[in-house]
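Marked as duplicate of an earlier ticket. Keeping the data here for the record.
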Amino acid sequence: MNNTQPHNQDGHLNTHILDHDDDCTGRGTHDRVVACVPEGNRMYCRVDLKWELGVPNVAQILKAAKVRNGGEQRGKWTLDKSEPWDCGKSIDYYFVKL
C-alpha cells in the first residue's frame, strides 16, 4: 500500500494506514489497541472491538502500547483491572508499573 495517499476508508485510526496493516492491531492479528502515554506508574489502554479480529491478550496490548508510545512505558507493567463498556464496543484496560 502507498502510505503517501489517504486510503479514504472511515473508521481507521490513521488516514494513511489501514488498521489491519498497523501495529495497533498487531498487523491484523487482534482488535485495535488505543494506548495512552503513561502517567507516572499508571497507564490506560482501550481495545476497540471494531474489526472482530479477537481480543488481544495482555502481552499483545503492552506490545502495541510500546510501539504507539515510542517506548514511553519502559519497565514491567501488570494489569490492574479491565472494564468492558456497557455498549460492548470497547474494553478499558488499566495497568500499573511494578
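See parent ticket for discussion. Strands lie at 32-35, 42-48, 77-84, 90-97.
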